[in-house]
């Protein structure tokens, strides 16, 4: 019984381009029950409660297109699905994960909606969606709701699951250049680019960052030795092994000195400007606690600077400031730190903050600095007295434009000497605008994995595009880190096309990855079991460094449930829509609705790429205008009006003319030889395989393969074995013919029957048919009508993809429809697939007759059918 509630029926994570947008989204199916009769303007106090809890909803423009547009929709009356969309987006925004795209659409079922929201991170978006539902129900039912606690929880999730700001700025820069990105773990390891063209980053480290260089940078003494040997100015100093030794080194060097960990980072444990034995000896344990050794070196007068070197160039520079408080005569130093320093909006524990809070209990260097001035945390300094708390670690001011060229050159040299592609070079100088030698300045440290926030969010000066600098160091300006990707979809024939395209590409000396219904393949080696079309399987190809080209099949169900695995493709092939298949699922009820699903591949074709479309399908002709790249048509009929118009405009098409395969562009034609000579087509008799052949040639033509290579490839494509087994594989014994094929919708059955008509063999004509995945009643009626008109005997068996009870019901339904067929003489039920095939083969003999064995849609069906057919034909 329905009630006033919002119930989640399903939540789909569309992780790539989808029917809604190019970006990942969540698609929530919700049932609002009786709320279908209660729009927002009929719920007393609802709008006011919602606006009070989320006042920032005023910024949502909605369909009205202006500020306050969504609130106007609330006043006019709108439904919970639409409201859930906007509240989810706003909760994500308030939590710090920007999201602007959303949709809410009715389905055919009353009260059931699809709510779509941008999902930069699935875990956070799912939590925001649930929180939005709870908030809405509280507003509807006039119950309290703790918005602050909800946002705090969502912010914690953002901190835990989203990319850190340094990594995010690099990914954003890559996106601006059209370079795709894939997150490889729950942290900040990210792949930029695909396959063999990929690079990897981990915050401010890359796959070019030398492990040896990192180790050297952590060893401060070794770093100084190497820099000194190359003439880079450094402070004098040495390693020490005790507090007494530290004082001895200080006496040798001359006061003042710095005592610091020799393998520390981020300025922790560094005590500077030490002028007495007591200060040096007190600093030793502070430094020792932060590293595995201690170094004492000459104190250099001047300000601390951080120079960011990327790819042999100075990318940014920041100047550090001392952290100090001013006494008021009443507050302790701890209280002054909290009120004057830790309230700085740039300070925070999370990675997004460039400065961390100063907590004396965990800052021994700060405690030592206070003790040198005669204070501790509970001291109350006089009013107006300035008390130094930290000397370093507070990089706040951008000074990139002030760095003297000689100083920049010294920093670049230091990074190169240590062996780092990205380095944070710490320079102490009184005036960064002068050469270091002129002022006794020096490079004091070279750090791997430097922080980027100081350059992204400086207190003064302009932010620097450091993410772009890192991306530019990894990829030449003419590169987007891509490999050729061929996306293949359509209602029928897509697996054959994908297999053939992959086979042709392998001949062009590329290591090819193939994800299709037959599985996951690296070159010709199968590397995964089961369906290779789903997102996780195809994703394995894109992260594989060995892959130089990828062919990825997508069917309507994968697009609707997961989205595409790639952001853009070089070539999209669509074999056809026709009458469609699997109608009734995901609220797709008509073939015309499949246009929106399959166009997803055309939408993501790169500007320099191509869409290869079936010119005989009017819906695909209509789709052509959506392509950012070129359109290549294919057709068996060269006289189609769209073909003539396309060629007249200088376009390309793959055609059959007088039995010849032809590449046509404008008025120019290249003959690839006879269609009948291509094994896949069985002497040109199987029309749908001719279509698949044309589509595959169109895809490889778009990628620049030569005519000779394409012809060689299609001539050597192994139809029945490694090529496309079970996709119209023919066996003959005497005058009898057995065909193994997976036709499983009305269009495919018509094409199959037309092909069978071209093969010799006297009646009877029989079939072993396994009703597969869920289809609506009209689809089963259409298939039954074709079977009943084309076959004398049909054996109904079980598809492994269908539960036993459903299989029994489906066979009974088909039996009734089949018996109305004008040709059918007998309908047999045999749930055991092996027995069904064996009995049908035994009844066939070798004198006459044609048997079609349908492989079903479950995995393993083709293997069994082929095995038994080979045994029957004496080809085991």
Please outline the helices and strands.
Elements: E1 4-14, E2 25-33, H1 46-53, H2 69-76, H3 80-94, E3 102-106, E4 112-118, H4 122-140, H5 147-161, H6 165-176, E5 181-183, E6 189-192, E7 199-202, E8 205-206, H7 211-218, H8 220-229, E9 237-240, H9 243-253, E10 257-261, E11 271-274, H10 277-288, E12 294-298, E13 303-310, E14 313-320, E15 323-326, H11 333-341, H12 364-372, E16 386-390, E17 395-398, H13 405-418, E18 422-429, E19 442-448, H14 453-456, H15 466-474, E20 485-489, H16 494-506, E21 512-516, E22 519-522, E23 525-528, H17 535-542, E24 549-553, H18 556-562, E25 569-574, H19 591-603, E26 605-614, H20 618-623, E27 630-635, H21 641-648, E28 652-657, E29 660-665, E30 668-674, H22 687-702, H23 707-716, H24 719-723, E31 729-733, E32 736-741, H25 746-756, E33 765-769, H26 777-790, E34 793-796, H27 804-818, E35 826-829, H28 833-844, E36 850-854, H29 861-873
Parallel strand pairs: 20-24, 20-25, 21-24, 25-26, 26-27, 27-28, 32-36, 33-34, 33-36, 34-35
Antiparallel strand pairs: 1-2, 2-4, 3-4, 5-6, 6-7, 7-8, 9-12, 10-11, 10-12, 13-14, 13-18, 14-17, 15-16, 18-19, 21-22, 22-23, 28-29, 29-30, 31-32
Helix pairs in contact: 1-4, 3-4, 4-5, 6-15, 9-10, 10-12, 16-22, 25-26, 26-27, 28-29
